[in-house]
Design a protein that fits this description.
With 110 residues, the protein is α+β, with helices and mostly antiparallel strands. The protein is 32% helix and 18% strand.
């Protein structure tokens, strides 16, 4: 798995000073990526993140993560996210509704 900074075309020295910022609005909310900050270290990144992303809106928690610590998939690997089997039976709705939706597909495959 390649590093995110490589996929973005950055140099490792530059990526070492870029931190991804994730914020949590309430204790029950997930952390959401809100942007990036440039800082010399994690402590300074947290200060910048607080000033930039937690000053106006309510926030209970911030995460700062150096780009060098983030792994990512490439767009060439997108097929790994496709479902291997048909799981349409998991979708809500009645049996008749599912049959109505699936009927045109059956005709096309003939």
């Amino acid at each position: 798995m390649p590093a995110l900074w490589k996929l973005l075309g950055k140099h490792e020295t530059e990526a070492a000073h870029i931190f991804a910022v994730f914020r949590q609005d309430t204790k029950n909310d997930p952390h959401v990526h809100v942007g990036d900050v440039h800082a010399t270290d994690a402590e300074m990144a947290l200060v910048f993140a607080k000033e930039q992303f937690a000053r106006r809106d309510p926030c209970v928690n911030l995460w700062v993560v150096p780009y060098t610590a983030i792994g990512a998939t490439t767009y060439d690997d997108a097929d790994m996210f496709e479902s291997a089997t048909d799981k349409s039976y998991r979708f809500g709705g009645s049996y008749r509704e599912q049959q109505r939706i699936m009927k045109p597909r059956r005709r096309e495959s003939r």
